[in-house]
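Quick start: what a row looks like.
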Amino acid sequence: MKSRTLVLCGALIATVAVASSSCRGRERAVPDNAPKRPAYAAPPAASANAKRYPLRGVITASNPQKSEITVAHEEIPGYMAAMTMAYTVRDDPGVIAILRPGDRIEATLVVDGSKVWLEQVLTKGFVPTPGGGGGAAPAGTPPASRGGGAAALPGSDPSLPAPNKGIAVGDAAPDFTLTDQTGHPVRLSDFRGEPVAVTFVYTRCPVATACPMTMTKFAKMNAALTAEKFGKLLAVTVDPQNDTVPVLRDFASRIGADPKRWKFLTGDPKAVARVAESFGVLYYPERGQIVHSQAVAVVDPRGRLANIYYGEQWTPEGVIEDLQKARKG
């Protein structure tokens, strides 16, 4: 099948550029009293702390009314595994209007606290959308979407976290109730008066640089906090159907987690998903494992988000310093 490209006044890009001289002849043919296109209002600028990552993938769905596209993208080193998820496009409205499922794109993924969006979207050709007859699905496509089925995308299933629901630094963290490795209910509000570090993992995670590395770092933090006698650690599972209380109890025991300070939490899948999305964490099942984003949040003694790290680029020392600052107010 020949590749499809988007042609806009001769440019093979998915951006709406200023009209070139080759297009001006058409412009002169437009009547003077023709309706004018509303002026484009630029979206709010990203903060100075925003991070940017190159994103490559294939569009699987487009919603121009919401300025949103769903992309099956490759791994984003240092931030996210390959997955399929919906992104807001912050660009000229003309961009989202011409994007179609099957477009292969390159874009800039902007991560500004808990907010995530795409900008500078460029099309790089077209690939056939997988249908009922088979064919290879784009990397990262959830199993439900393979072979033409409906995709179980983040935000479309209440047992999975929805995108762009994360709170900002300084906001009150929503209270929640989950169950720890001892079988007792745990509320975030139980820890008022102490700073808390919260992360998201699962016990069967096979990626050494993901959950196992996070647990190694948390073990180091646990030792330091125990010595200094302050702070709590919470590890919320992103696999509540498999990470039951007995599983978490055994796992916590094997890594030396004292439940008085370091709690592993599980619960109803919908309840866990609401907790994850409030911290900007996304996940979904694929091929027997869980694809998930990584985050470590610091909640201050008053229950406000003091800081949050996304991806793998954080250190135990840095989080402990954040806990100490939060402790002092």
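That is the whole record. Helices lie at 21-28, 93-98, 211-228, 245-254, 269-278, 316-328. The chain has a mean pLDDT of 80.
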